[in-house]
Design goal:
Helix content is 15%, strand content 30%. By secondary structure, the protein is an alpha+beta fold. It has one domain. The strands form three sheets. The chain has a six-stranded antiparallel sheet. Strands 2, 4, 5, 8 and 12 form a five-stranded antiparallel sheet that branches. The longest helix is centred in the middle third of the chain and has 10 residues, at 130-139. The chain is globular and about 55 Å long.
């Protein structure tokens, strides 16, 4: 087992998710999850669902609109499509996580010239897309393509120019950078470490994350996420 952050000694569970892989777990209310990048320009795609009602899922448009922001960082919350808070970002080394860049699709791989490598050719080292990775994890819970929502890209930064064109920012994430989420309700977390669809790398990058799970006390009235927006309270 790895020790991903300075909180590892207090973590109840730690593991490492290699680059180009996927993972899912049901987390209880009051659980914390700290993700730590092992390499520069790491990307971690994330979807969230209510395990008791899988129709309720992460809604990034509402998350951004309700908090008047284009980026997500410490003090922001992740909202469901029923207006409830899945999780709060309570610690963040990066100051910006992408919520508009989307997911790596098969057509992105071809456009970039990344040579697709099948499982038969390379076994666990085959080149996965974020889209297919999410589908594999969703299938474990009886979900499929119609249940796919817009995903969060942790560790990545995408900016918009005056004409609305999106630009990926290389070097935004450095090794050792971490982000900590506190879950405010029971949540099914779907995660992959496939590259960002706008990543300019010449070859398919494999950049993993360390995962540490712990517990947190209930938020108090001076909590940073509680105070950041009236909607969060």
């Amino acid at each position: 087992m790895s020790t991903p952050s300075n909180e590892a000694s207090d973590a109840l569970y730690t593991t490492h998710l290699p680059g180009g892989q996927h993972w899912s777990l049901r987390l209880r209310r009051g659980t914390t999850m700290t993700l730590t990048a092992k390499d520069a320009d790491t990307n971690a795609g994330m979807l969230l669902y209510n395990p008791e009602n899988l129709l309720e899922r992460l809604n990034l448009p509402d998350t951004l609109k309700g908090q008047h922001t284009f980026k997500l960082t410490r003090g922001h919350c992740l909202y469901s499509d029923m207006g409830r808070v899945f999780a709060s970002i309570v610690e963040d080394d990066l100051g910006w996580h992408d919520s508009v860049g989307g997911n790596l699709m098969p057509q992105h791989m071809l456009a970039k010239g990344w040579q697709p490598v099948s499982y038969q050719q390379a076994h666990n080292e085959w080149t996965r897309t974020g889209y297919d990775s999410f589908l594999v994890e969703l299938a474990k819970y009886g979900l499929g393509r119609r249940d796919m929502a817009a995903n969060l890209n942790l560790f990545s930064r995408v900016e918009s120019d005056d004409e609305g064109h999106l630009r990926y920012v290389p070097g935004h994430c450095q090794p050792g950078a971490s982000v900590k989420l506190r879950f405010e309700m029971d949540t099914l977390v779907i995660l992959h470490t496939c590259p960002h669809p706008l990543d300019p790398s010449r070859e398919y990058p494999r950049r993993g994350v360390d995962i540490a799970l712990g517990t947190a006390p209930a938020p108090t009235e001076d909590d940073v996420c509680y105070h950041s927006r009236p909607e969060n309270a």
